[in-house]
Each structure stands twice: as structure tokens, then as C-alpha cells.
Amino acid sequence: MTVYLDTNIIIGYCFEEDQSRRNADRVVRLLLEKLCVERFHASPLTLVELYSYIPRNIDKFKLPPELKDFLEVDEEPKIRVRVKESFARLPRPITLISDTGGMLV
Amino acid sequence: MKTPISQVHDSSTFMLDPDVTLLLSHLARELTGRDVIRGIVTYGDPDYDPVIRLVVDLSAREALELWLKLVKLIPYKRYGVVIGVRWLGKNNVSRDELVDYVIKIMVEGGLRTTALEPLDVVRELRGERGER
Does B95 touch chain A if contact means CB atoms closer than 8 Å? Predict the structure, then answer.
């Protein structure tokens, strides 16, 4: 089974400091345990929202030592790392689906 | 003649068991098949605690592969030590590849981005979507 994940859940699940972390964690756990979800879906809107939310909050995030040195030159890689990290932390692979149903990634 | 390993230790902020640096040197040798470590720097980070940086005589790609292997063997999420690698050889990775390596190292090592203040994504996205 595949399930569409809202941006709230993706960010809430991936950032421990987010106030919705506990709820997002519970939703993801339920999807895995009760519905045996094997893959998540997201839409281009998810990417738009991530690329909108993360730059606005970029100063609130701290990258781990040793890794941040490579990304301090400009903002874009820092943002990209956080977007990619959000997807990579999910316990199942995520596929971006276009509005017409085609796979983007 | 082998280049001696230099060790820099910021003892004002942090003390690390010397066995850990020995273990890392040994692992790096096992994983690459040769002595590649040219320096070890240890320091403390206020949010992540101990950090060990290995300076290696490898190209960027080889060093990043070594880094990835090391964090899989000694993940931060289990041992609470951040491992870093810096290379003395040529920079043979693109910016995109470097970003991909950073992600892999973070995920495999269980290193997370931390937020310096509480976030409320639900409220922010609601505002953006015009929801109440």
C-alpha cells in the first residue's frame, strides 16, 4: 500500500524540535503497523512547501559539526540538505507524483 | 618514511579516551588497506558533544567513502561521537555529489539537523495555505 504524506507530517516527523513531532511520529507508526505501508507519496506541492518553509527558518537549524563546514559557502546547499534529509529520514521510500499521476522522482 | 600522525586536542573543552582515536586509526587502515591518517583533531561541540576529525591522505571521493564506512561502523546515534574526515588529496567530487555524501553520512550515522528553537510547522503551513 502507498499513502500520500502531507508536508506537515514530513517535517514534523523529521525535526524532533517541531511541536507536531509526537503526532507525526504516531501517524507514521500507525501507517506502518496497521496499514503496512511500503511506500509514501508526495506531490510537487510538498516540494514547494518544503522549499518555502525551510529557507524561512534556515537560521533556526544547526547542521552537525564537521558536515556544516561544507555547506556554509552559500544558502542553497544548506536548504537542499534539509529537504533531502526530510525525505531520507522517513522509514519508507517516498515518491513524488505529479498532479497528472506521473512519477517525478 | 611514514608521515607521523599529528594530534591536536582541545583539552580546554573536551577529553576523549585515547583508545577511541586508536580504534579509528585502526579502522581507517583496515578499510583503505594503508596508512592514510595524517592528523587527528578532537574537540567538543555544545550540541553534539565529542567530535573527532581525521585528516587523511586521500582524494575527496576516497575520503568521503571512508567517512561513510566509518559512520556506519561507529554511528553517532549509538556511540555519541561525531566523526569528521578531511582530505589532503584532490577535490574530485562535484558540489552536488558532496551534498549527497553529506546527506548519506548524516542518515547512516544518525546525525540530525537540530533546531535551535522550537518549530511549529503546522501553524506556519496553515497560514501559508490560508487555513485557520
Answer: yes
Which pTM was predicted?
A: 0.77
Q: In sequence order, what E strands does B1-132 have?
A: 6-9, 37-45, 49-56, 82-87, 114-115
User: Is B118 touching A (CB cutoff 8 A)?
Assistant: yes
Cβ contacts (< 8 Å) between A63 and chain B: which residues?
113
Using an 8 Å CB-CB cutoff, list chain B residues near A52: 128
pLDDT, one tens digit for every residue, chain A (105 residues): 778 898 889 988 887 777 788 888 999 999 999 988 889 999 888 888 888 888 888 888 888 999 988 877 677 788 888 888 888 888 898 888 876 555 544
What separation, in Å, do the N-terminal and C-terminal C-alpha atoms of chain A show?
A: 18
ipTM given for this complex: 0.75
- The full DSSP string for A46-85 is HHHHHHHHHHHTGGGEEPPTTTGGGG-S-HHHHHHHHHHH
